[in-house]
Write a structure and sequence with these properties.
This protein is an alpha/beta fold and 163 residues long. Helices cover 52% and strands 10% of the residues. A five-stranded parallel beta sheet has the order 3-2-1-4-5. The radius of gyration is 16 Å and the shape is globular.
Length: 163
């Protein structure tokens, strides 16, 4: 399974020390050059810039073969290139958090998952303690409706009760 990642989900997974979940959930994790560059911006947290300066072997930077569709101009460079790369490679999944980027991916028929979806799937596979990791995530600048967090925790509790 090939996943194309945008910078925001990678940023947050790195901040909460969960980026290594990605190769446990997906076969290949690719990022376009704009995402690689975006993770190096001065305003990016130091831990993220250090991580991308020596990326893990499972993360590959993949150049695009063509210029992204101009209709993606309302998105940032990383989102544009991630969507374009997903289309070029017919990726199995796009890793996106931005609402506009997700709407565009849906409009184009591209399957996507966000940071919370990655954590949810990892919890389903018993790879993490969802409550603890969500608490860590909420200590970052990640914005999420508290009702969504409660919904994920309720779902996880029901799953564990059935096990």
């Amino acid at each position: 399974m090939i996943v194309i990642a945008d910078s925001t989900p990678l940023n947050y997974l790195i901040l909460i020390h969960q980026a290594d979940l990605l190769p446990q959930l997906f076969d290949r994790i690719l990022i376009p050059p704009a995402v690689f560059e975006g993770l190096q911006y001065q305003e990016t947290p130091d831990v993220v810039r250090r991580w991308i300066a020596g990326p893990p072997s499972w993360l590959q930077v993949q150049a695009l073969r063509s210029v992204p569709d101009p209709a993606l101009g309302h998105l940032d460079a990383g989102e544009r290139e991630a969507i374009a790369l997903a289309e070029e490679l017919q990726a199995d999944q796009l890793l996106l958090d931005d609402a506009d980027a997700r709407r565009e991916a849906a409009r184009r028929g591209l399957p996507f998952i966000g940071t919370l979806g990655v954590l949810r799937e990892a919890a389903r596979r018993d790879l993490l303690d969802l409550r603890a990791v969500l608490a860590q995530l909420q200590e970052t600048s990640f914005f999420v409706d508290p009702a969504l967090i409660e919904s994920l925790l309720d779902e996880e509790a029901r799953r564990k009760d059935r096990s």
